[in-house]
Design a protein that fits this description.
Blueprint (H helix, E strand, L loop, with lengths): L4 H7 L5 H12 L6 E3 L12 H13 L4 E3 L4 E2 H6 L4 H4 L2 H21 L4 H14 L8 H12 L21 H4 L33
Antiparallel strand pairs: 1-2, 2-3
Helix pairs in contact: 1-6, 2-8, 6-7, 7-8
Length: 208
């Protein structure tokens, strides 16, 4: 599925389209019916239709298995938390909307923890992946997303869309600037005094 600018502007307007495209590419390769199983919860045949996706998800829940769904890979726990039906969870726009909310929540957690600018976005991506903004175990995940953003088509602009209600300087969209993106493979930005112990904080959930 190709994510159009119109879809991203409608469904995830508070996040840079380049960032959201890179996140979706990393999470689901753009497959709206993708189901990603948590580690230790086995594998599952990927559905080809919305109906098959909904039926598969319901079957997995009944079996007590943990997984994530859709373009932004919304975890089963968040499907429940945000009050989605499975039909809504596999809808491209509603899936992106919830993905944006989750990323925003982690961005604000990162900001409250002392991160700023690109480091706050990096930390938010850690949270999106593993549930904690300080979990450096997710640096490879964040690095892949930043690499995809760095290789985005040159006509895509950063920080040009109107900022949401919060001050522009506090938004992921405003913080993104092509000149400040780290090169692929470059070390993660760190907060002063940040621990590099990946086991310091256990994630409450695996996968978003």
């Amino acid at each position: 599925m190709v994510l159009s600018a119109a879809l991203l502007d409608q469904c995830a307007p508070q996040v840079s389209p380049v960032l959201m495209q890179a996140l979706v590419r990393t999470e689901s390769a753009g497959q709206p019916f993708a189901i990603g199983m948590d580690k230790a919860h086995g594998t599952v045949k990927q559905p080809a239709t919305a109906e098959e996706a909904v039926a598969t998800a319901k079957s997995l829940v009944a079996a007590g298995r943990k997984f994530s769904v859709g373009l932004a890979q919304i975890h089963v726990s968040n499907v429940s938390l945000y009050g989605l039906t499975w039909e809504q969870a596999f809808d491209a726009c509603q899936n992106l909307q919830v993905g944006q909310k989750i990323l925003w929540n982690f961005y604000h957690r990162a900001s409250a923890s002392g991160y700023s600018g690109m480091a706050a976005i990096w930390a938010a991506l850690r949270g999106y992946n593993s549930g904690g903004v300080d979990r450096t175990i997710s640096d490879d995940y964040a690095s892949r997303i930043f690499a995809y953003m760095s290789s985005a088509p040159p006509q895509v602009q950063f920080g040009t869309a109107a900022a949401p209600a919060r001050a522009a300087a506090s938004t992921p969209r405003a913080a993104l600037n092509v000149a400040t993106l780290p090169a692929a493979g470059q070390g993660a930005p760190h907060r002063p005094g940040e621990s590099l112990d990946i086991f310091e904080k256990a994630a409450s959930k695996t996968g978003f």
